[in-house]
Amino acid sequence: MSLLSSTQRVAGKPRASTRPSRPPIGRAAAWIYVGVILAVTIFPFYWILRTALSSNDALSRDPQSLAPVGLTLNGFGRVLGLVHGNATGTLSALDSGDLLLYLRNSTLYASLMTVAVIFCSTTAAYAFSRLHWRGRNLIFSLFLVALMVPGIMSMLPNFVLIKDLGLLNTFPGLILPGALFSAFNIFFLRQFMLGLPSEIDEAARIDGAGPIRSLFSVTIPMTMGPITTLTILTFINTWNEYFWPLLVTNDKSTEPLTVGLASFQQNAPTVAPDWGGLMAATLVAALPMLLVFVIFGRRIVNSIGFTGIR
To answer: With a threshold of 0.85, does the pTM exceed it?
Structure first.
């Protein structure tokens, strides 16, 4: 009886298909789409590397070659100061600027801006989330309006203000307009601080801590995750900033690297640009951001998902 039942169960069980399953059309289309996006994203970086490894003379003869033409490292040598002059008569990158000076300016600009933005945003978010004062919600609503104003609309008034203050071609002129107020950062940190238990502040007050001590001893240590995220994103955005530094600086002593790279090919329009040196300088300029991404890549990806920027 049991043998018959087992035979009936086996007979009633549907046979597994031996034909290979074909991938769904949607999944295949998704892989094709990802491949196209990767190719479009990676190809400019490859083209920069190919140009940096080519000689200027060979580039003029074969500009459309996909592989490096006249393979050489002289472009990196000129950028790093190991090779001077240019045998082809084109303008050398280092003849029209000082890469190390631009790197120093970018590092100072991005570091000072990041410190100022994070400090001002953290204190403002603490005031809007943990302190109780009249008109708090009304003023915060006005702050939110700033999120809806395109940044380009405030650029001209900020330029006039910096000019009237006599801060053109100075680091304070570069930093001040964006350092004191960042609506997104304040909103982001306020939302996180609102989720902290109010009993923590009450316990700090019982222990005799005032608002400032409570901020630096209790709230900031518990908010280090979002603060670190904003620090990384602010540094990267400031390092890549181009338009505002272009408006307020025209002196090498304060120009960041993004503006300095553009000046490499503009100083002598009658002479062929040093494309090999320019692309090598671009790679050297991108190296700090690549290191930041390698070190903090996981946190950057998590922060993008956490902040909802997709």
So the answer is: no
